[in-house]
Design brief:
alpha+beta, Rossmann fold, Tumour Suppressor Smad4, 2 domains, 11-stranded antiparallel β-sheet, 4-stranded parallel β-sheet, elongated
């Protein structure tokens, strides 16, 4: 009999995960598998006490998935991973094609093939979807769980508007295989996925090409910046949005108090050494 480890974050999304997971667990058990469930947080080892398992299923949002992926790779766990999306944005799961219906996602996991995809590494830590810093990029860290359950993605926008009062541009030097440049940036994102908060900011990114897609937004007055953002989302190429594709990126700054974000959780400090780990994750579904 195979064993499935199902890790879930009881604080993910707008509703309790228990009602969503009951049918999925029943489906796994009907297939003949033994299902081990564990509620996780971001403070302890999610794999402690689980024992042996042949398939790992994560039920939660982007932050939960990123946290589990990081711990998997640190622990040397090479087990196929399936996702039941229960978060607010679910950017990573959407890109991989997982249904937002828990039962349908469970069926995808049971019936799907295993494929290898990339992940990113920053200063020894790993991210699944996006690493970022700057305006609006760390709002998920600062947005409390209660507003997210009530307002969904709108809670992130409300928190982001508060950042406008104190935000300052970041002097940044970027080094990659494409060369080196310096600029004052207001937003920086390094994608393994394609979207952040559902916004298609890295349309050409592929999760299995061995490359990271980076986007650096340079300083502009806010109204012009919002117009440029709309142009970029619609496929335009505004000068304030600088893109690059690279396997390895190094970022330095004269500032020392820059808050970074990895899949919605607190990220490492500057200077930053960012690498794409080609095919490092096994996805089932």
């Amino acid at each position: 009999m195979s064993r499935i480890a199902l890790l879930y974050n009881r604080k993910s999304g707008r509703q309790s995960p228990h009602a969503h997971l009951a049918e999925a667990i029943a489906l796994f058990e009907a297939s003949g598998a033994e299902v081990i469930t564990k509620s996780i947080d971001f403070e302890s080892d999610p794999f402690e006490g689980l024992g042996r398992f042949e398939l790992l299923v994560v039920a939660g949002g982007d932050g939960t998935i990123g946290f589990v992926v990081d711990r998997m790779l640190h622990c040397g766990i090479d087990t196929p991973l399936g996702i039941i999306p229960l978060g607010t944005a679910n950017d990573f799961a959407r890109m991989l094609g997982f249904s937002l219906n828990p039962l349908k996602a469970a069926r995808q996991i049971l019936n799907g093939k295993v494929r290898n995809i990339d992940c990113g590494r920053v200063n020894g830590r790993h991210f699944a979807n996006v690493f970022s810093f700057g305006l609006f990029t760390t709002t998920s860290q600062h947005t409390a769980d209660a507003p997210k359950r009530i307002w969904g993605r709108l809670a992130y926008l409300i928190e982001g508007l508060r950042e406008l009062r104190t935000f300052r541009a970041i002097p940044l030097t970027v080094r990659s295989e494409e060369g080196e440049f310096s600029a004052e940036v207001v937003i920086a994102l390094v994608f393994n996925g394609r979207t952040a908060g559902h916004l298609p900011l890295a349309r050409k990114a592929q999760p299995d090409d061995g490359m990271l897609d980076a986007l650096f937004v340079t300083k502009r007055p806010l109204p012009l910046l919002l117009f440029d953002a709309l142009r970029h989302i619609c496929g335009g190429k505004p000068a304030s949005f600088r893109s690059l594709r690279s396997q390895h990126i190094q970022l330095t700054s004269s500032l020392t108090d820059i808050t970074t974000d990895m899949d919605g959780q607190s990220g490492p400090e500057f200077p930053l050494d960012i690498t794409c780990l080609k095919g490092r994750l096994k996805i089932c579904g």
